[in-house]
Predict the structure.
Amino acid sequence: MEKQVLENLRYLVKEEKLPNISNADYVKKLKLHKVDKIKALEILKEYGDVKWWLSSDNKIKAYAQINERQLVISMKDYGKGMDNLIKRDTYVHPLMRPNGLRDEANLKMDELIENHSNQA
């Protein structure tokens, strides 16, 4: 995870009332193979108290997911969130190989953060 992504996520979820669920319980609910669940749990631990995957805002989840190496949210949330974030339809293939899409998503999230900061 990049430092700037973590800082953005910390800012985005700091005031949100997130559900009280452990990382292990969250990962158990994901439809992933056992090995992938172990990898997902390791990734979630890296974020400490910045539990973006529990956010109710699917744009935040998509932004974080596209900057991760392993799927840690549902494909449904990922797809819907990315559609909402970049304001256009996305498809499974670009979501799974996201290099160009990542730049677009990061730019849109920077714009959203800037707009939110200016309103505060």
DSSP finds seven helices and no strands in the chain.
